[in-house]
């Protein structure tokens, strides 16, 4: 994807001066967000389960001149989530913004073929995890920066019936509701909470889905008005804008970033 950030650009970055926390930051959209947020001036703490991936992305960010650190975090473990958010405050003295991007996927299939173990795993990581993260992030923002912004990564699969990924779609739809409730609750304090709903994006998650549903991307692409899937950075750009002061009057939104697929 063409990078619109010129090396000769002396204007302050979109997230200049902000301390940012990102879950699922070892790969895909989360890794793209870590690189982008740092390029836009944020001090970034990357969180995910896989240390090797976190270390690699953190080193890339630092090599490009950004400020980054990482913490191993399992969204299914409440203590791990709280400790990761606390680490951002320990490192940077504050928390301004957070991107709750981390999520799990399970094999696609109809509702009656979803195992209880898979359903429980999706709940723990894709719904309870962001809820725990938001709770900790709001406390950290309140205690340090005072005001700030949170973006949750939802999915266009949350907007309508999702016969291939019914439990995944259900958790993401519930995340939309949590996002809206948090926006209403914390808006008076100056804490904005939004979500993005990506469409088909070239990540490990969609590649995993394709192994179960061969030809998935070829089937999806004609339904997208832009006639292509997204690059992870394009999704990260939407999150960066919502977290920035440029979106200062936007809260409670679930922004479709899907090339027009749900238009």
TrEMBL record:
Tagged with keyword Oxidoreductase: yes
Family assignment from sequence similarity: Belongs to the short-chain dehydrogenases/reductases (SDR) family.
UniProt keyword list: Oxidoreductase
Domain Ketoreductase: residue ranges: 18-205
Documented EC number(s): 1.1.1.30
GO terms assigned for molecular function: 3-hydroxybutyrate dehydrogenase activity
Pfam family, one: adh_short_C2
NCBIfam families cross-referenced by the UniProt entry: PRK07231.1
Annotated protein name in UniProt: D-beta-hydroxybutyrate dehydrogenase
UniProt cross-references to SMART domains, sorted A to Z: PKS_KR (SM00822)
UniProt cross-references to InterPro entries, sorted A to Z: KR_dom, NAD(P)-bd_dom_sf, SDR_fam
SUPFAM superfamilies in the record: NAD(P)-binding Rossmann-fold domains
